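Form 7-S
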Amino acid sequence: MNEVKVYKGQGVLVQFNAARCIHAAECVHGLPVVFDPKARPWIQPGKASADEVVAVVARCPTGALQARHDDGRAAEAVPAHNELRIVADGPHHLRGDIEIRDGSGKVLARETRVALCRCGASSNKPYCDNSHVASGFKDECTCTLGEMASVANGPLTLTLCTDGPVQCDGPVTIFDVFGEPASTVQQAWLCRCGASKNKPYCDGSHKAIGFRS
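Output:
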């Protein structure tokens, strides 16, 4: 089980899940007085206002950091739009109103920020754990341009198909590695085995390589 540590500040609690941290360092660069890897503890939310802490925590692309009020309520607003940003040679960064389900439909988590493994090597699937670096995963996917139709806001459901792709149901805008919008879709199947020739989408390669998840 992933250990989640909690740090108390001025009216805000910061939760840290080390297993989901891939060292994007948005917190360190955004508020170094609070997030200092050389300090012990390395997170000291009492050194800044609650608003400052919440704003920087929201920059964490993986969801490893979460901010909550003292009574346990989430301090971060749910984004109005769902976005998927492709990281060159790395994971998918998603932000929005996200629900993750297993292949049977069981709800595993509700998220606003998540980094999904797409190299197939993570030991913490479906989350990225930086295994793409050691595995030598390469993909500078610029993404084939698709339709940019206007879609209604709403939740995004990610279903982890057993030994297969991530099925996305709900409105999401996909951005390429340069930050340019490539398409807006209501449904998509994302490769998570790393072998698709049509990244970020699944092309059935998981069957040929014997992908297991």
